[in-house]
Amino acid sequence: MGNEEAILVAFTLSDGLYGVEVEQVREITAMRDVSPVPNSPDYVLGVTNLRGQVTTVTDLKKRLGSMSSEEPNKNSRIIIVESEEALVGMAVDSVREVMRMPRDKIDSVPDVVSDFDVEAKYTRGIGKLKNGELIVLLDMVKILAEE
Q1: Alpha-carbon span 51 to 32, nearest angstrom
Q2: 63 three-state secondary structure
Q3: Which of 2, 3, 72, 132 lies at a 20 to 30 A Cα distance from 51?
């Protein structure tokens, strides 16, 4: 297969479509109860028990800093990502699909955007779907590195 194709987990945050390369995802789970942690950053929803392992759950919209959060609903999911130290859950509005995207359909982020936008520094690229929709590819490792 080589490196010509990216396999992405596509998910929604507010009105945007985002993706993360499947190698960065350990699993996807339904939204669950989380226990708040005192004095944690505002983007940390709390911790939950994931098969016997305490897992921090963050609100990815708040983490990216550019979107308002609403209450989780039946479509909300937690994307579990493995960092060097631990598992971290990223709460998203919904997971749309696992998709393949040719790497030549993924553009780098324009410099003018990344200079001003918190979200852009966590962005790996912007993909163009057949229907003209754009998908913003996030780098979960970079997001976790700053936690």
Answers
A1: 12
A2: helix
A3: 72
